[in-house]
Design goal:
This protein is of the alpha/beta class. The chain has a single domain, classed as Luciferase-like domain (TIM Barrel, Alpha-Beta Barrel), CATH 3.20.20. It has 14 helices and 14 strands. Strands 11-10-9-4-3-2-1-14-12-13 form a ten-stranded parallel β-sheet, sandwiched between helices. Strands 5-6 form a two-stranded antiparallel ribbon. It has a two-stranded antiparallel ribbon with strand order 7-8. The chain starts with 5 loop residues before the first strand and ends in a 15-residue tail after the last helix.
C-alpha cells in the first residue's frame, strides 16, 4: 500500500494565532459552545482527517488578558464529540505530573469505549510552573524529575490497560459466568512515585489502549517518545531541522527494539491561505497587527529570559541576552526560539509575530498549491509522516484548508479519499497491542 499522509486538526479556542479572537471572521463568543466543536469535528471527519487534537493544561494560561486561552476539560468535550462523529480520532491532553495513573487510565478507557476505539492520549509533563500551587506543591518539579515520573506513569497505566485480557468477559447466560477472573490481573506496581495494586475496573478497550501521542523535542522528550509514543507532535521551522529530528527519533526507537515505521512524526503547521501569495501574506499581516505587545514581551521573558520594552521592538532581537542557564533551557520551545533568532536575526517585533502566529511551529502563508507543496516536500523527503493542522483562526481557517488544500493532496495521491478503518490505530496504520498478560505470561 502506498504510504499516506496523516492529518489531525489541532483545535485551539478561537484559532492558533495569538490575536485570532480579534479577527473579523473569528467567533470568540462560541468557544464555550458545544456546537462550535461539533461543527469543527464534523468538518474534519468529512475531510477524512485522522483525528482532532485538544491541548490542555492544569492552570490558567498567562495570556488570558489578551486571548481566548482557557480550555474546556478534554474528557468531557471529547466524549460529547464521540457521540457526534463516527470515525474521527479523539486526542486529548493529560499531564503525567498532575494526574494519578489509576484515574487517568479509567478516563481514557471510558473514552475509548464510548467512541468505539478512537481515543488518543497526548502525554505531557506540563511546563507551566503555576500549576504546582493548584495541586498543593510549593514548586514545580524540575524538567528531569517530570520525565522520570512520566516514565513510571506510563509503566503503570499500560499495565492497567492490559490488566484485563481480551477474553476476560465471558458473558455466558447459561452458566451465569460474566467474567473469567483468571484473566483479570492485579499489577502490584510499587515504584519511586506510585504504588498501584490494580486491576483496572473497566474491561480492555477496543484499541487495547489509547494511541500514545507525545509532544516535545528536547533530549529528554525524544528519549521518552522513542520508548513510548505511537505519534510525536514535533515543532520545527526548517526542512533540515525536521529531517534531522525525524532520523534521530527513528534511530532511537529502533534502539528500543521498536519498528521505526510505527512511530509517526507529525509536526505542527499553521496555514495562511489566499487565492494569491499576496492575499495570504495580507491575512498574516492583518492578524499580526492585532497582537498585544505587552503579552508578547512577557512571553519572551518567560521563554528565554530576555527583558524588552515596547521602544525596543523594532531593533534587532538581542540573541546574546538569551539566558541559557536554569530549567527553562531544557525545554524544546526554548531551543526552538533560540535557533530561530540565531538563524534569521529578526527584529524583536518580527520574532514576536512568528511566535504569535503559531508559537514556534511551521507557518506557511501562500496559495493552496504552495501550502500543499510544503506538506508534500516534508512528507516525501524524510521530515514528517503527516501534520497537525493549526488554523490561524476558526472556523474559516480550517474549512478553507479542508476545501482547498485537501483536494490537492488527494489528487497527488498523498491523502485518503475515504476511511478504510474505524479506530484511530487503524487510521494511523498501527497494530492493536496484545495484553502483556495474555496466556498468563507477563511480556
Amino acid at each position: 500500500m502506498t504510504r499516506q499522509l496523516h492529518l489531525n486538526l489541532f483545535v485551539y479556542p478561537g484559532g492558533h494565532h495569538e490575536a485570532a479572537w480579534r479577527y473579523r471572521e473569528s467567533a470568540p463568543e462560541r468557544v464555550l459552545d458545544l456546537s462550535y466543536y461539533v461543527e469543527l469535528a464534523r468538518a474534519a471527519e468529512a475531510a477524512t482527517f485522522d483525528g482532532l487534537f485538544l491541548a490542555d493544561g492544569p492552570s490558567l494560561a498567562d495570556n488570558i488578558a489578551y486571548a481566548t486561552r482557557f480550555r474546556l476539560e478534554p474528557f468531557t468535550l471529547l466524549s460529547a464529540l464521540a457521540a457526534s462523529t463516527t470515525h474521527l480520532g479523539l486526542i486529548g491532553t493529560a499531564s503525567t505530573t498532575y494526574s494519578e495513573p489509576y484515574n487517568l487510565a479509567r478516563q481514557f478507557a471510558g473514552l475509548d469505549h464510548v467512541s468505539a476505539g478512537r481515543a488518543g492520549w497526548n502525554i505531557v509533563t506540563t511546563g507551566a510552573p503555576g500549576a504546582a500551587q493548584n495541586f498543593g506543591l510549593d514548586e514545580h518539579p524540575t524538567h528531569a524529575d517530570r520525565y522520570e515520573r512520566a516514565d513510571e506513569f506510563l509503566d503503570v497505566v499500560t499495565a492497567l490497560w492490559d490488566s484485563w485480557e481480551d477474553d476476560a468477559v465471558v458473558g455466558d447466560r447459561l452458566t451465569g459466568q460474566y467474567a473469567d477472573t483468571d484473566r483479570i490481573h492485579r499489577i502490584d506496581h510499587v515504584g519511586p512515585h506510585f504504588s498501584v495494586r490494580g486491576p483496572l475496573n473497566t474491561p480492555r478497550t477496543p484499541q487495547g489502549r489509547p494511541v500514545y501521542v507525545q509532544a516535545g523535542t528536547s533530549p529528554a522528550g525524544r528519549a521518552f517518545a522513542s520508548r513510548w509514543a505511537d505519534a510525536v507532535f514535533a515543532a520545527h521551522q526548517t526542512l533540515e531541522e525536521a529531517q534531522a529530528y525525524y532520523a534521530d527519533l527513528r534511530a532511537q526507537a529502533a534502539g528500543h527494539g521498536r519498528d521505526p515505521d510505527r512511530v509517526l512524526v507529525l509536526p505542527g503547521i499553521s496555514p495562511y491561505l489566499g487565492s494569491t501569495d499576496a492575499e495570504a501574506k495580507a491575512l498574516q499581516r492583518d492578524l499580526d497587527e492585532l497582537t498585544q505587545p505587552a503579552y508578547s514581551i512577557d512571553l519572551l521573558r518567560r521563554l528565554v529570559g530576555v527583558e524588552l520594552t515596547e521602544a525596543e521592538l523594532d531593533d534587532p532581537f538581542p540573541v546574546e541576552a538569551i539566558q541559557v542557564e536554569g530549567d527553562r533551557a531544557e525545554s524544546s520551545r526554548f531551543q526552538l526560539v533560540r535557533d530561530l533568532a540565531e538563524r534569521e536575526r529578526p527584529t524583536s517585533r518580527q520574532l514576536l509575530h512568528r511566535l504569535a502566529g503559531a508559537r514556534g511551529h511551521k507557518l506557511v502563508a501562500g496559495t493552496p498549491e504552495q501550502v500543499a507543496d510544503v506538506i508534500e516536500t516534508w512528507f516525501t523527503r524524510g521530515a514528517a509522516d503527516g501534520f497537525n493542522i493549526m488554523p490561524p483562526y476558526l472556523t474559516g481557517g480550517f474549512t478553507d484548508f479542508a476545501e482547498q488544500v485537501v483536494p490537492i493532496l488527494r489528487d497527488r495521491g498523498l491523502f485518503r479519499r475515504e476511511y478504510t478503518g474505524t479506530t484511530l490505530r487503524e487510521h494511523y496504520g498501527l497494530a492493536r497491542p496484545a495484553s502483556r498478560f495474555s496466556q498468563g505470561v507477563l511480556v
